[in-house]
Amino acid sequence: xxxxxxxxxxxxxxxxxxxxxxxxxxxxxxxxxxxxxxxxxxxxxxxxxxxxxxxxxxxxxxxxxxxxxxxxxxxxxxxxxxxxxxxxxxxxxxxxxxxxxxxxxxxxxxxxxxxxxxxxxxxxxxxxxxxxxxxxxxxxxxxxxxxxxxxxxxxxxxxxxxxxxxxxxxxxxxxxxxxxxxxxxxxxxxxxxxxxxxxxxxxxxxxxxxxxxxxxxxxxxxxxxxxxxxxxxxxxxxxxxxxxxxxxxxxxxxxxxxxxxxxxxxxxxxxxxxxxxxxxxxxxxxxxxxxxxxxxxxxxxxxxxxxxxxxxxxxxxxxxxxxxxxxxxxxxxxxxxxxxxxxxxxxxxxxxxxxxxxxxxxxxxxx
Length: 367
Description:
Layout: H1 4-27, E1 33-37, E2 44-47, E3 52-55, E4 59-63, H2 70-88, E5 93-94, H3 95-102, H4 117-131, E6 140-141, E7 147-150, E8 152-156, E9 159-162, E10 171-172, E11 182-187, E12 191-195, H5 198-206, H6 209-212, E13 215-219, H7 226-239, E14 243-246, H8 251-261, E15 280-283, H9 288-291, E16 300-301, H10 304-315, H11 322-334, E17 336-337, H12 350-361
Parallel strand pairs: 5-6, 12-13, 12-14, 14-15
Antiparallel strand pairs: 1-4, 2-3, 7-10, 7-13, 8-9, 8-11, 16-17
Helix pairs in contact: 1-2, 2-4, 3-4, 10-11
């Protein structure tokens, strides 16, 4: 386990390296310049070796003496300097806190350093990409979103937490789950079930599915945040646990699955630290309607936005597997989508007592 202080020293060294580079340029009489990866769709690709979405090698320059760049250059330096202060104080702040800490009127002018948070947030991402760090490693936190339960004990700071004794609410997954912050002390599970929806997760938790089926259950309450994704990756890599994704049978749920598995386009610069390529899709699928005799009245017709998103998914390289293409074709042919809650039509505990156990037993997965 990496010591927190050691990790922080490494991060500060990278930040100081950026600052020293600028100072050296000034001392030489050169225009202060920082080089940043281009974070656009044209610089994104799917890496077959790592099976993750990655950022390409195109870079751009941000120059202080270029009037089009001056403001952003100044803002970038301010963000980097404030992050260093936060780390030196052994504190963690939200990206909202960071914005307010930096916002002020420049002395002798009527100009503010930042007008709104939409100016500071992209600069954090620039620093993450250029320094090859996660924002959590920069001591920046997002609001807690995901919840988890199961036979697992973690040490979070000075607190030891048993995830099997967290009641109906589960344990709230923190933004930073790096090894130096959250240590997995005990693990007694054979797989991880990543559930798209909070309400469905609560059904699994109330039914003690994790206890009866020897697993960990986690939800991102919709699109998974970094904390849940990083923790799931750790469970897969450090404890060799298979990851199964349970999502709605629609293009949106299937995309959420792909973000857990391959990563997202917007975070392509950090996906090797977040994505879990071994993740398998366990359901829900349009094919399950006939397989499990699900009543047609609980299905929903696809709308134009669904069809547009479906076409996008079919074009992604990471969805080119014939099984996925067949599922997409069937969805288009049947012109339906379905929510996980629709399985309640077969009985309130059908999903936990019949549907999932059968899917796992039959290894009925999509790759």
